[in-house]
């Protein structure tokens, strides 16, 4: 694929304003595995190309055209995004649909502890992450042309139905905590508020930050849609309940105060103030849903491993063992 991207110079010179080849130094990023992402250099600067994977795909998956649309629409808002430069829907050019965006400088962390940073940097990063989330949920979707970006109806009801269906399709045995969790989620659906743009995967490793700790770009919009804003906040707080390290990427057992990292409550309070909410939001349902969605995803990984369709069957089976643990963590939150 790197070689094919190197051959795109004439195409990009014709479709990207100001682009000038030749293309060199094409490298695939470690992140962005769902939609493979490449950084490359040209005479006119550095660029990022994000494309669909090759092979047979689910109809609604890997929607790079939706990603291109949303970052284009956010260009004049307070949400920092790369500049969307060109969407290529002609699959004959590169083999799959792809888009090109500007390269944004910034630090990227997988581990939310920010182990090698100062307390001042950690505090600044978390505060900027919080402010950026509130800015995202304050976007007037009609004004930026995203009023039709998601289906109508209650977001959580729709999502629980979708992920329950996915879970049932990959179910390999009865997991009682999952049965209890699904029943609770179906019976406690919160009322739907005004439609807001939600990112769908709000985590520190999907953002870039400048030297001052300020967010310079929000990346990976594949799961974005219109829905309930507390889904993003709940998803982030759920992630922090997981073990620290490269696998869990959480903050379980971490002395946050000693590191300058806000507690869940402090983070939610700051968000509420910035989002103009009268009260600190109740997050039991959003966090429980986030645990449920993750459990459904890793159940799918387990099923593919058992069927022999996983790229790493051993790792897939190992991940699958966490399904009841995620469900039980959600139940502990809501009981």
TrEMBL record:
One of its GO terms (molecular function) is transferase activity. Pfam families: APH. Its EC number is 2.7.1.-. It comes from the Bacteria. CDD domains: ACAD10_11_N-like. Residues 26-246 form the Aminoglycoside phosphotransferase domain. InterPro entries: ACAD10-like, ACAD10_11_N, Aminoglycoside_PTrfase, Kinase-like_dom_sf. Keywords: Transferase. This is Aminoglycoside phosphotransferase.
